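ligand=zinc ion
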Amino acid sequence: MNPSTLKIINKSEKKSTNGTESSTMNNSPTRFDPEIAKWFNDYDCAVSLRFDDNHKTHVQFVIPLLNKYNFKATFMINPGRYYKKYKDFWESEMPKMGHRWGNHTWHHKGAQNLEEAEFEIGEVSKLIWKLYPLESKLNVFASGGGELWGGKRWHKTSPEFWDISKKFHLIDVYDGKHSSFELNSEIGQTEIENKINTAISEKKHLAFSFHKVGSKSLTDYLRKIVKNFNYTFSEHQFRKLIHYLNTKKNQIWIAPLVQIYKYEEEYKQAILTVLNKNEKRIVLKLKIGTDPKLHDQELTLILPYSKNRIPTRVLQNKKSLEVLKTKTGKFCSNINPVNSEIQIIYD
Ligand SMILES: [Zn+2]
């Protein structure tokens, strides 16, 4: 690679006004310190797409469209409800496509007592672990809409119920800390685009959730009248959303919820310390507060470089990692979220 063709796009480097791009890192340590990107591959933000209740429209329309764009999503599935017809699809085809299951309980009916809750929550987790043997046990959990757990709504029930979800390493999406934006046919494209653009400018995670994607049935109209709950988002709206996301795909990390939550937490709990650096090598210590058995999402390490100093190798605990480039041309490596020593080498 010809170094003179490289564009320096790191914002902090641009801000530097000393006029000499080739000034060495020793003169300006912060300017060249490696850092972990806020989002994987240094995307500006993250967007997740979550589909609840294994609706047949997910099989017939949503997943084929997502696959066309290579967008990976999360499906909150109840193996005990509306499931049999597409059982094979959910259990063998969908995991192979790279989409993820979330735990939405077995029957979508809550539980009268702890024993029932253990089944409703635990059996789904065990099934997911079996279907995704290479993934960690951590996953997302949604208790269902109006279901009762020991006679109370999930967020008001006794902590023993919550302990069951913790035992199965579940991130409760209704714990008040994980917001999502439910899309239905009353929400216009402009509002959706504004949300996406805000997520990009604020570098945040935008979580969209859906139920049925398709035209309204009589039941859907009745549900809206009786419960004032609009359950559907039209195919046309969904296509527009996906097309829009595709126009921004260089800025957005579109990934399953669990991957985004893992990254977010690991990023928060990662501390990078520079142990040693010279012209040829930077040695770093990565200290991480998350449990690597559960939090195993790779983090993106942005590698310092200049016109005359291009990183050629990266070692994590002496194991060689690939030197990659982000969409904006920065050098990076994807590192494992484990306590380790990292060396960035400039040959
Ligand atoms: Zn549901």
